[in-house]
Amino acid sequence: MKYALYYYDMCPFCQRVLHALPGVKVKVERRNVMQNPQYRQQQQQATGRTTVPCLLIEDESGKETWMYESGDIIRYLTSL
After folding, report:
1. What are phi and psi of 18, to 5 degrees?
2. Any residues with CB less than 8 A from the CB of 25 and at least 6 apart, and which?
3. Is 80 within the bounds of a domain?
């Protein structure tokens, strides 16, 4: 499984997730949508939304699942 967090620094909900990342057991790539507009475009094309934080979960077959809501993301990552 691959994990990527779409976020930007000034977002308080993103900060909640970012502060939880050191406590999770999986590697989560950080994708700042303000520093790299390509990430924002990729998220919008895949989901129709640009809301952050957003966690991209990609399984071994390449199937993508997108998760929103900071609390849900934190619960999911800490349960792994």
Report:
1. -60, -40
2. 80
3. no
67 and 57 in contact (C-beta within 8 Å)? Answer: yes
Say what the pTM is: 0.96
* Strand partners for 54: 6, 68
Count of domains observed in the chain = 1
Residue 15 lies in domain = 2-75
Distance from C-alpha of 8 to C-alpha of 5, rounded to nearest angstrom: 10
The residue-averaged pLDDT of 74-78 equals 98
Report how far residue 36's alpha carbon sits from residue 75's, in angstroms, rounded to the nearest whole number.
27
pLDDT at 61: 97
